[in-house]
Amino acid sequence: xxxxxxxxxxxxxxxxxxxxxxxxxxxxxxxxxxxxxxxxxxxxxxxxxxxxxxxxxxxxxxxxxxxxxxxxxxxxxxxxxxxxxxxxxxxxxxxxxxxxxxxxxxxxxxxxxxxxxxxxxxxxxxxxxxxxxxxxxxxxxxxxxxxxxxxxxxxxxxxxxxxxxxxxxxxxxxxxxxxxxxxxxxxxxxxxxxxxxxxxxxxxxxxxxxxxxxxxxxxxxxxxxxxxxxxxxxxxxxxxxxxxxxxxxxxxxxxxxxxxxxxxxxxxxxxxxxxxxxxxxxxxxxxxxxxxxxxxxxxxxxxxxxxxxxxxxxxxxxxxxxxxxxxxxxxxxxxxxxxxxxxxxxxxxxxxxxxxxxxxxxxxxxxxxxxxxxxxxxxxxxxxxxxxxxxxxxxxxxxxxxxxxxxxxxxxxxxxxxxxxxxxxxxxxxxxxxxxxx
Length: 438
Description:
By secondary structure, this protein is an alpha+beta fold. It contains 16 helices and ten strands.
């Protein structure tokens, strides 16, 4: 049985690796070699990466690719994407080229409101609490001026603070529900700092409030934290063209394709089993750009999927219609992201990504991210409703299969040539590779 280790965080990186290798691996030397081969030869750069998190052993690589030829609001972009899944970058690039020839993508930021909450328990009369809140509300703003003055200079800050009665769901439970504009910053630390001060102000003012009895003065703050659900921080991306221009393949009828595409989207709108996979494909595009630009893909994903459930059932993020012989395809997606702070000023490849995008504002980056998600979705649904998803995906995936089985350069050429016109699956590729080797 493996014993717990004390003081692991205080060990040097070398000591941590040595303990991991000896404790968990049958070949400690090989395990250590695997870890160390991913270290950067530039010691300063490696030290920078080591200090991003705790107990760092090495770097974990993801492929960093680009999807060129995106036209968004009349401006050309090459979009960085960090992702390991085959065919995602190729699909985005193909969709970008397709829509670039039809006027490009349009994107609009609808709102940029972010949310934070102070969750607290209050045992007493709600009317008295409401009166108290109205009296001290200005104090929440004045007590946070030291934190908000720089944000206010950039046009952001605290937008509003509301008192919310949640006692119908949980006894004695109330919220301070605050909204923020954090401009080009992701704003997590800013919001949480403000919220923690709100909590102190709430407790201090309640304790001194003459209108409360002793029990009412004893407000219990449970926690103060931002929300990753941002239904009022929305960006819309869309494309449209005449129906007769929707197909670039002579074998595919444009009208039939358009109608089939719209029905595929409608199915994702009403069927949660389909909607989850449908939206996962959208997130292939969104997350790849979020990671490449140093934003929090976990926060974005949580907020996006909550938004997809906002009407009581999980549904498609994208929508499509045909009106007056015009095909329109669009997406509304919540994105609380930034272009300053966090990794954006530290990680060299994040800085590379942002410069390649023209050093966008947070709102411009929201548009870029949403468009990439829409492009990915278009490519996937087009494949599903025409040739099938596997034809394109497996052609991209075949190289992973060959690398997994140690195929030589000559073997790869023969396998790729054979499967140009044959059905592709993992087992069929492996079988053919074995035949070649015999």
